[in-house]
């Protein structure tokens, strides 16, 4: 030290004013460190490896889309059968009400269509909505034909 220089040193003292603020600061420091360490572990892909990842992802997308389209196609076929059944039902209402064999035949057709619609699988919202509306309509038709079918338990 030379003559005339001041020998003071500035020291910053951190006092924890708020315990919660200190805990939050330490938590964010740990999280920032964890995120930084994850970035370091990420593998750098070669162009060929990147192409394989992209292709695999796209093929998975095509498979999901084709399943949805297949389910929508099956739903459209079932919808056309429902339209035919509805037209037949509306034209034969009186004979269905009088004839038990005719009523039994319509019930069997409706039940087989319910089973066909219920077998259609799909996670797409359009498929689920279409299935639900068709099943509701088929169940309403079945109730109109036979309001108290044998085998159903009714609460007293």
Number of helical elements: 5
What is the chain-wise order of helices and strands? HHHHH
Strand content: under 5%
The CATH topology assignment of the domain at 47-145 is Methane Monooxygenase Hydroxylase, Chain G, domain 1
| CATH class descriptor name of the domain at 47-145 | Mainly Alpha
What's the pLDDT, averaged over the residues? 79
Q: For this structure, what is the CATH homologous superfamily of the domain at 47-145?
A: BAG domain
Radius of gyration: 35 Å
By CATH, the architecture of the domain at 47-145 is named: Up-down Bundle
Give the structural class: mainly alpha
Spans where pLDDT lies below 50 across 5 or more residues: none
| Count of extended strands | 0
The residue fraction in helices comes out at: over 70%
Distance between the termini: 104 Å
How does this model look, in words?
It contains five helices and no strands. It is mostly helical. The protein has a domain at 47-145: Methane Monooxygenase Hydroxylase, Chain G, domain 1 (Up-down Bundle), CATH 1.20.58.120. Helix 2 runs antiparallel to helix 4 (100-119), helix 2 (47-91) packs parallel to helix 5 and helix 4 runs antiparallel to helix 5 (125-145). It is elongated, with a radius of gyration of 35 Å.
């Amino acid at each position: 030290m030379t003559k005339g220089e001041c020998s003071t040193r500035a020291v910053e003292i951190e006092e924890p004013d708020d315990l919660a603020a200190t805990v939050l600061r330490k938590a964010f420091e740990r999280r920032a460190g964890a995120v930084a360490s994850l970035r370091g572990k990420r593998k750098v892909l070669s162009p060929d490896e990147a192409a394989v990842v992209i292709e695999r992802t796209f093929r998975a997308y095509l498979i999901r889309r084709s399943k949805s389209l297949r389910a929508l196609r099956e739903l459209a076929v079932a919808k056309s059968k429902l339209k035919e059944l509805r037209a037949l039902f509306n034209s034969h209402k009186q004979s269905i009400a009088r004839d038990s064999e005719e009523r039994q035949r319509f019930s069997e057709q409706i039940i087989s269509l319910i089973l066909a619609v219920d077998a259609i699988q799909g996670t797409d919202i359009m498929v689920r909505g279409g299935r639900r509306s068709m099943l509701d309509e088929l169940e309403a038709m079945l109730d109109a034909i036979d309001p108290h079918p044998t085998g159903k338990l009714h609460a007293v």
